[in-house]
Design a protein that fits this description.
alpha/beta; about 280 residues; Glucose Oxidase, domain 1; 4-stranded mixed beta sheet; 8 helices; single chain; Rossmann fold; 7-stranded mixed beta sheet; 2 domains
Length: about 280
Amino acid sequence: MPDRQRAFARARALSDLGFKVDFGEHAFAKHGPFAGTDEQRLGDLNAALRDPDIRAIFATRGGKGSYRIADQLDFGAARRDPKPLVGFSDITALHLSLFRHCRITSIHGSLFEDTAGCPDTENRDILRRILSGPGKLAYGSRSDEATSALSTGGTAEGLLIGGNLDMIVTTAGWALPDLAGALLLIEAVDCQPGGIDRAMTLLRKAGHLRDVAGIVVGQFTTAEPHQSPRIIDILGDNLTKLGVPVIGGLPFGHGARPLSVPIGSMASFDTASGTLVVSH
């Protein structure tokens, strides 16, 4: 369930950028571990997709259980009036389903906060640029991110698709789009070596990664820091089997100072410069 005060603070930050903000009818509902029943969450989301006055949809939290409703969205309304959905974590299931059915560009991210609890200014400005009109954004690989060690040589170009690895695996076979020719973005939270290996193995052996053009690796965070080297080794072993360029260390996910990024958009990366460029 979303924290009301944090949600209101984020709404004020968007208002300060010049956007008019409203909340869904059941934005603060609660049902067990979820923010309302499936019907309530689906109803609010479909109402927003159908409302011509709404130009972007922000998730108030990571969207626990979004995969339960990802196949029931009003895809007809989304195709008639495309608008970005902003969110990450479990919201990835909705991003993937919307792209599979409607080829809609979404935003993997949120109005993230800095260590003082205020909107992070770099990420806030990125969101403003994405929502204000077309252009290009450049993201640099961060050497202090553990996944930066996974970068290989080479360049790659394609539609940037993906997000949270658990949700990519959860949607495989029913909501995951065709990844042929795509740059696959992966990030994960609460990582365990075995879980990461199972996820990557499933995607490889099921053929979902057979024709990807490249891999963009974001933040892989774990509550057990001593496991991080093993996680990077396991990721590297799986990614090497794909034989495609990989850029790691990107600031997308659940780690420190994450940034928002358009997905479903054309993108390219150059591992020599450590830069990912995304159109929006």
